[in-house]
Amino acid sequence: MLNDKVALITGGGQGVGQGIALALAAQGAHVIVTGRTLNKCETTADLIRQRGVKALPLRCDVKSKDDLQSIVDATVKEFGRLDILVNNAQEVARGPLLSLTDEQMNGNWESGPLATHRLMKMAYPHLKETKGCIINMCSSVMRRWDVATYGAYAAVKAATEQLTRAGACEWGKDGIRVNAIMPHAKSPALAGWMKANPVEAEHFQKGIPLGYVGECEEDIGAFVAMMCAESSRYLTGQIIGLDGGQAF
Fold first, then answer.
1. b/e burial code for range 100-137 (CB count within 10 A of at least 16 → b)
2. pTM (two decimals)
3. Which of 28-37, 61-70, 190-199, 207-216 has the weakest average pLDDT?
4. 248 found inside a domain
């Protein structure tokens, strides 16, 4: 389905990013796995190679413009093309608005919408050549009726939502599709949150109509692979809740 396509993923060393990387590899894509911790990316790359495709692990701090340009350049140098960009990495600082510092807010912004915008622009000329696609990472926190202590996180994800919509509108003429997902997945970050907030976590899980949190590869990654396939060529500008039905 994605044979010999080339996919670049940020935050691919664990969790949702790793699940997406493995699912794309299972469909025949070669994957560039990036993250702040290189050994985690190397572990994911080893798993990808077991699927019979190529992998390139790269260290990248998405808050660094130079790092972002470096991974795009390395991708094109190694594979000669870029078909899929997955903006997954995101630094998260949550808490009551009065408690959040400028440093925390800047970290949320720089690792989220600013990094997403930068990579979208850097990838644009290559995706235009291949008629490729972009998948951005949003969150159903944008749809919560109560965003107390989640305001900063919701704000940056809402900014990413609008970048997604704008990219789809502006670049559709170039054959580039831009979509986003709002996933619930068994990532290390979610596991840590559930452990630290057991009461809220219980209510959270009960509020999922399908009754469970999605698997990173089988539920989230497999859907992303479908979104990137030719069979989804008419899908663009969509922000999809991939959360077992919780965000209606």
1. beeebeebbbbbbbbbbbbbbebbbebbeeeebbbbbb
2. 0.95
3. 190-199
4. no
Is the residue at 244 inside a domain? no
pLDDT by residue (tens digit) across 97-110? Answer: 999 999 999 999 99
pLDDT of the residue at 244? 93
**175 found inside a domain:** yes
Residue 150, domain CATH: 3.40.50.720
* Domain assignment present for 163: yes
In 3-state terms, what secondary structure has residue 33? strand
- Residue with more model confidence, 138 or 193: 138
Count H helices and E strands in the chain, helices first: 9, 7
Which of 124, 150, 153, 212 is catalytic? The answer is 153
Number of domains in the chain: 1
Whether 234 is a known active-site residue: answer no
